[in-house]
Design goal:
Order of helices and strands: HHHHEHEHEH
Number of domains: 1
CATH class: Alpha Beta
Largest sheet: 3 strands, parallel
Strand content: 5-15%
Shape: globular
Number of strands: 3
Structural class: alpha/beta
Number of helices: 7
Bound molecules: S-adenosylmethionine
């Protein structure tokens, strides 16, 4: 058995690199349904004073859908190309971090979200 056959597929899959490559096509995928965000906002008890953290936000489809239900959203993704193609909204601040990195741990320390 070769060395690559030995490794689990997941160990070879680089999600951030893969999403950098597909970013410009991402917003053309099937979108979340019309009722989804209202139901999610209710389930999460979001309000006008709520600050939300969207981890692995991609192009911000979830953040953009929730933005009108809350005060502000910090949206984080490791793929800069996904952020470059993200939905713009004044309530969303996008950040590029690998969430497994020390830089992200430093950024998140002391912050609180809904
Ligand atoms: C399937 S997409 C989902 C995007 C978004 N949440 C949505 O529902 O449209 C997964 C995202 O996770 C990001 N991602 C994967 N591993 C990551 C990591 N370690 N740190 C930050 N982002 C990561 C990828 O770059 C990609 O944009």
């Amino acid at each position: 058995m070769s060395e690559s056959e030995d490794k689990p597929v997941q160990a070879e899959y680089d999600a951030i690199a893969a999403h950098n490559r597909i970013a410009k096509f991402y917003r053309y995928r099937t979108q979340y349904g019309d009722k989804f965000f209202g139901r999610l906002a209710t389930r999460l008890k979001l309000g006008r004073d709520t600050e939300v953290l969207d981890l692995c936000c991609g192009t911000g489809a979830v953040a953009a859908g929730l933005a009108s239900f809350c005060k502000a959203i910090d949206a984080v993704d490791g793929a800069p190309e996904m952020i470059a193609h993200a939905f713009a909204d004044e309530r969303i601040t996008y950040h590029v971090f690998d969430i497994g990195s020390p830089d992200f741990a430093e950024w998140i320390r002391g912050r609180t979200f809904a």
